[in-house]
Amino acid sequence: MAWHVVIAGGGFGGFYAARALERALPPQAARITLVNDVNFMLYTPLLPGAAAGTLEPRHVVVPLREELKRTHLRLGTVVGGTPERNAIQVRTLKGSVEDLGYDHLVVALGSVSRTLPIPGLAEHGIGFKSLPEAIELRNHVLRTLEVAETLEDPEERRKWLTYVFVGAGYAGLEGLAELQDFAADVIDLYPRCRTQGMRWILVEARDRVMPEIPPDLADFATRELRGRGIAIRTSTTLDRVTAEDVVLSGGELIPTRTLVWTAGVKPNPVIARMGLPLDGQGRVQVDTTLRVDGHETIWALGDAAAVPDPAKKGQSPTPPTAQHAIRQGKLAGANVAASIGNGRIRPFRFKTKGVFVDMGQGQAVATTLGIKWRGLAAWWLARSYHLAMLPGTKRKWRLLIDWNIQVLFGRDASELGGLGRAPGLGHDPTGAETPAGTAEATGATEPVAPS
User: Fold this and answer.
1) Does residue 221 sit in helix, strand or coil?
2) Is residue 358 located within the same domain as residue 372?
């Protein structure tokens, strides 16, 4: 009888775990099921490019059914787990909750944006972790330019042309840099906005940006952003958000219609309902082989797990990066295969070999194998790395074409916020209500009298 291996989550970790299992086990040895709420894996390092219009949104995702040949994809949302029964609970597309049994379980449910109890943040902040959020942010920036262009009052216009990002890690710094680059490209289409100018502000609670990279590269990134007119507030936090302004620690009030929150991540909330041991940060406790403490047939990885970091002698968990999730996914697949009888179980030994921080057209910072890069060379290395790592030959070509089209022809300035939200039949674009019982409301038509 074939073993049933269930993978919960289709991000980097889940995808690479499934692919490793497909390669390690013959079809008759195991049945592999991957549960995910969408039928694609988001290649998150390319998310800023999608937000800035450099990349077509479909080209920053990897269709799971195309790339996984023997894995059964089950679309649904994992809502809990009962390890004593070897089952997880899945909410199906029809809304019912069903049990899904397993012989081995790989938990790769990832993370969500970490928010704080700041007044107004949930109501007025914009996230930047998912593809819908990235596209909405791009559309929002274009809408602010459209609104500002119609305003007569310069003070009111300034609110719409001020953009505040909170959090100077990968997502915040790269997202702000790409979007500012995008807005600078298209602002010539808006004469009033061009005359007034935009204001971009990056807020970080720590004493410098990008603690993941060496201080001298972080300093270079800071100088590059400030050279583009971007204000950087370090050792600063957010106190309050309203629809028309934000207040920073120290009392600085910034009139703005845009607050983007990128200040960290936390494990997917469903992790707390999986019945597994957790650490103080809500991550699943695992050993160096990614096996969950006290559970021989359950494995966990990525942002959802406290995987001991070999670079820090196991004293703290690995950072929540794609590099680590990919290697942990490959190891989890290999170790599950080994526990079934194909190979031997190995510990996680990967250490970061380099980092890339893309800051818009022609600008980046990077470190690879101890060598530090900046400017155009770092930008070329960053793009080459992501091109090499993106799964699928078709997607590599699409990515390469997108990049070259953007370099040759610039970015598109269309605001397509209505995509995916089609109005119903009979919708009145003016917003006026059609009185009930009229011909327009009932669909009846009056005969046309002959002329």
Assistant:
1) helix
2) yes
